[in-house]
Specification:
The protein is mostly helical. It has one domain. It is 86% helix and 0% strand. It contains 2 helices and no strands. It has helices at 2-23, 29-49. Helix 1 runs antiparallel to helix 2 (29-49). 0% of the residues are buried.
Length: 50
């Protein structure tokens, strides 16, 4: 049950962060940093699932 709670919290946090990142200007340094972090997390999760 704790893993489900963790993954749910992680998903909600990522969704909220993504929504905020979309509000930033397209060429913002913060937005590019957030995008790099999101790509890194996505790659890590993908590697864990294999």
């Amino acid at each position: 049950m704790q893993v489900k709670t963790f993954l749910l919290t992680l998903g909600v946090g990522m969704a909220a962060g993504g929504a905020i990142a979309l509000m930033l200007p397209p060429h913002s340094k913060v937005r590019s940093t957030v995008q790099k972090a999101a790509d890194s997390v996505e790659q890590s999760v993908s590697n864990m699932m294999q």
